């Protein structure tokens, strides 16, 4: 097994250890063991990171598309070569299974590969003007980016925050989650080893509010990119507004699942059980509010509960584990609170509902049915391995249930009717909709939400466009 790494920050081309800095203890959620002590940035470190990002941007924005592409594609190749090492680090600190972290590392590599090609396509246009005059519309990098990534996808989230800005010619100050630093270090290391110049990417950790306030107050930072809760996102938007920074915000979700009575029951149950227990439900697009049409409601509840019972919970490093622990002590406690409230409102726990084992942060995959709309779990994102099921009668009822919350990140629908599939895809208010499918992310597809789930997109051409500004040049 890969030993855990010596935790460091990376500022202005230098890897920085703790020395006399404050530290954060990183734990293994499977057993509570200490993995390492993470250095936390102070104001001097952050100022150094800002000045380095300023210099790095002035250098990198002049790099050619070929130069940027070589770095990104080189980093993709290095991640693929190091996939086992990176996956084991991510499993140690975040908990998800090795199968999941291996896939996540390969997705990060594919994302870098995509942007290594997409950086060639920052097209502008020439406007029609009289002879002797010319008007051009060009695209330029927005400038230094402050990027904040959460802990639930410790490899892909940092890659998302780096791929498009680096492709566009921006510099980045990346602050990943303090719970999962080693995986982020490896993503940054791949870029550096592939030839990324000094100062283009800084990697810092720290007290989140201290870091965000300091970076977003600086005129050096031109863009904020954040993935996390809606509440924190609103706070950061307020900070960014003071200096009118560009923003890309991927915020909270509460994904509805609509299962019509003509759905392929066996296939639907299998897909949804796998998606619900992925990363212990700690996924922003995790299917959560299940609305099942009355004609198949009882059969679906029984079949889904039976399938979820077969999920083997254990240390993510073990081949026998289908689902690992939750990532931090806050999550099992939150599950208990949500479930107690749901049961008090008439919900019926069909399977699970309790912590699992005597050590670590394991929680049983849980199915709870007959939950009314006013229960907390029907209105607040649980972010855990809990599926909440309620019946519906008509198409319009399903749409009303799906759209009633202020969130709109992801949604799912299952039907064998082509006409109904078209209608429900149009009717749901969500940035991403899966119809008879649960895969939401791809390097060439935009990832983002609407309403209070945020705005802007990462991945795809849209992710690159979010890191560019438009300039019109008129010449007579």
What would CATH call the class of the largest domain? Alpha Beta
Instruction: Name the beta content range.
Output: 15-25%
Distance between the termini: 66 Å
Structural classification:
alpha/beta
Q: Any idea of the CATH topology of the largest domain?
A: Aldehyde Dehydrogenase, Chain A, domain 1
Uncertain segments: none
* Outline type: globular
CATH H-level superfamily of the largest domain: Aldehyde Dehydrogenase, Chain A, domain 1
Radius of gyration: 23 Å
CATH architecture of the largest domain: 3-Layer(aba) Sandwich
Q: What is the overall pLDDT average?
A: 97
Widest beta sheet: strand line-up: 14-15-16-13-12-18-19
**Largest sheet entry:** 7 strands, mixed
Total domain modules:
2
Record field, number of beta strands? 22
Residue share in helix: 25-40%
- Helix segment tally: 14
